[in-house]
């Protein structure tokens, strides 16, 4: 009976380890056992992964998507729309419109029995307009039905404008234009001195202008 019990109690110990004590794969391990075993992971890599887990890429950092064809079509200029005119073209258009309006005005003037040449601006007429303005500012001329008004600052600025014109146009004027400009400047300067001196004199007492004496 004792021998029978010893036979029943015996068992076989099978070594199921895949690697030897030296860390090498055992030669007597079947291939099926090797396939089902998961790959060994480096402990340092596991610790780093636990410390800094991989972050998901945020939507803002995602690669830009290609623009849709409809958006590209909307951003492009329609071929049927003409380009904006340049600065030179705008100036030319304004000049053409001005000349057309001037011709229309000349036609109405001619129909009224006057000459359109009377409206033309020449250099002498330009100087004459400045001369008349300075005389009115000095109070020596006034509009019909109006009262004389003295504007010494305005008169001085107008005379200085004529002086500037004489300096800038030196050598480019005809003899008639040069004489007209110099004569206008001479008369305006003399008139300006007389008016300023008259305004600076104190008012005279009554009877002083006649020179009469009481008896």
What can you see in these coordinates?
It is built from eight helices and no strands. The protein has 215 residues and is mainly alpha-helical. The protein has a domain at 121-200. Helix 6 runs antiparallel to helix 7 (152-168), helix 6 packs parallel to helix 8 and helix 7 packs antiparallel against helix 8. The longest helix has 26 residues, at 175-200. The chain starts with a helix and ends in a 15-residue tail after the last helix. The mean pLDDT is 76.
Quickly describe the structure.
The protein is built from 8 helices and no strands. It is an all-alpha fold. It has a domain at 121-200.
Q: What letter string, H or E per element, gives the SSE order? A: HHHHHHHH
| Number of helices in the DSSP assignment | 8
Main beta sheet strand tally, sense and closure: none
Q: Rg to the nearest angstrom? A: 55 Å
Could you give the distance between the termini? 190 Å
List low-pLDDT spans: none
Tell me the number of strands.
0
Task: Report the helical percentage.
Answer: 40-55%
Mean pLDDT: 76
Structural class: mainly alpha
> What percent strand?
under 5%
What coarse outline follows from CA principal-axis ratios? elongated
Q: What layout of secondary structure does this protein have?
A:
Layout lengths: L1 H8 L21 H6 L6 H9 L17 H7 L11 H25 L11 H15 L14 H17 L6 H26 L15
Helix pairs in contact: 6-7, 6-8, 7-8
């Amino acid at each position: 009976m004792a021998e029978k019990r010893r036979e029943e109690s015996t068992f076989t110990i099978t070594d199921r380890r895949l690697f030897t004590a030296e860390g090498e794969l055992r030669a007597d391990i079947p291939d099926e056992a090797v396939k089902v075993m998961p790959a060994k992971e480096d402990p340092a890599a596991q610790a780093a992964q636990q410390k800094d887990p991989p972050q998901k890429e945020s939507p803002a950092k995602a690669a830009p998507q290609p623009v849709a064809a409809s958006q590209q079509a909307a951003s492009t200029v329609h071929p049927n729309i003409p380009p904006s005119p340049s600065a030179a073209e705008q100036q030319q258009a304004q000049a053409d419109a001005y000349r057309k309006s001037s011709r229309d005005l000349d036609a109405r003037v001619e129909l009224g029995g006057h000459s359109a040449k009377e409206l033309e601006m020449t250099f002498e007429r330009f100087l004459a307009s400045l001369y008349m303005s300075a005389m009115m500012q000095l109070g020596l001329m006034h509009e019909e039905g109006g009262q004389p008004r003295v504007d010494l600052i305005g008169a001085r600025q107008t005379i200085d404008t004529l002086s500037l014109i004489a300096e800038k146009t030196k050598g480019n004027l005809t003899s008639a234009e040069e004489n007209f400009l110099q004569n206008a400047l001479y008369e305006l300067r003399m008139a300006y001195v007389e008016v300023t001196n008259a305004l600076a004199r104190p008012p005279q007492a009554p009877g002083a202008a006649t020179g009469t004496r009481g008896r």
